[in-house]
Every structure is written in C-alpha cells, then in structure tokens.
Amino acid sequence: MRQESAYTRRLMTMKNNKKKIAVSVVAAILLVLLYLLIFAFSGQDGEESGSLSSMISEKCAELLNAISGKHWTQNVIDSMAAYFEHPIRKLAHFSEYACMGVLLYGVWRPWKERNRKLYLLIVLWVFVSAGADEFHQLFVPGRYGCFADVVLDTCGGAFGLLVCVCVEKIVRRRKQKRKDKEKEITL
Question: Following DSSP, what letter does each residue of 56-85 receive, concatenated?
Fold first, then answer.
C-alpha cells in the first residue's frame, strides 16, 4: 500500500512538472515574440511610427463615428484622430508591457513561490526592459527616449501581474469552495 502511494505521488509530481514546463515554455516563446514586436516598433523611425499612430487613431475615430451613428465630416474625424493619437500611443505602451507582466508571471510562477520577491522580480524585469527599449529609441532617427514612458510601461507590467494574481486567487477560491462542497456531500 505504501509503495503504491509513493508511486502515485511520483506520477503526480511528474505530471505536474510537465504542466509547469509546458506553461513556462509557451509563456517564454510568447515573451520572446513580444520582445521582437516591441523592438520592431521601437526601431521605426519617427515618421514611420507617427504615420502608424495616425492611421490607428484615424481608424479609431472612424469606428467611434460608426458606433455612435453620427455622420461626422472628414474634418471632425481628423480632429478626433489627432485628439486621440497621444492617448492611443500611451495605451499601446501600457498594453504591451501589461502583456509582458502576464507572460513573465507565466514563465516564473510555476517554479517560484507566490510572494513579494516574485512580484518584485517581475516588476523589476519589466522596468529594465522598458528602460532598454527607451534607450534603444535614442539611436533611432526621429525618436527619443523618455523616462515617463519607462514608468508608464512599468505600471503596465505591474497591472498585468496584478491581473494574474487576482485571477489565480479567484481560481483558488473556487477550487476550495468545490472541495468544501464535496466534503459536505460525502459527510
């Protein structure tokens, strides 16, 4: 009986380790792809980056026009696009690094205990990544590095981390409630 339980525990540990490895590998691959995307966006010169932002802002203004049911003139759409361009750029920064926070959590959480050290490690990693990205932009024509963007990116990463922590907590509570109900039923 004792050998069976030791054997069963070993099998469960192996199965659990395979899940951990799978989660970490997928998150790491997605993280590398995200770094490549961020590097590609940062490598665009000022004109190319500006035209991409303008195009996205214009599409957002057109979408807002369509959703609202209004029939704005092209002048109004252009004004809205110009108004939204800066916030959309900042939201893109925040979102990229929020994804980074989520992916870093996916890479490290299976192997590290959930605690402040893990959270600090992830936020620090995001901060250094954001700093490196802004430093890279110093060498791109028409672009500049900005510490405010580093702070915004770090906040995005911290937000992504916070989402992971909250989701994990909710899932844990639901599992515990299910277990408690099962115990009540068997009693």
Answer: HHHHHHHHHHHHHT----HHHHHHHHHHHH
| 132-159 pLDDT, tens digit each | 999 999 999 988 999 999 999 999 999 9
Is 165:110 a contact under the CB 8 Å cutoff?
no
**Burial class of residue 51, CB neighbours in 10 A (0-12, 13-18, 19+):** exposed
- Alpha-carbon distance of 104 to 158, in angstroms, equals 11
Token code pair at residue 29: 């691959």
Using alpha carbons only, give the angle 151, 156, 161 rounded to the nearest 5 degrees. 125
Q: Would the pLDDT of 79 be above 70?
A: yes
All residues at 6 or more sequence positions from 75 whose CB lies less than 8 Å from its CB, including other chains: none
| Distance, CA of 29 to chain centre | 14
pTM as predicted: 0.82
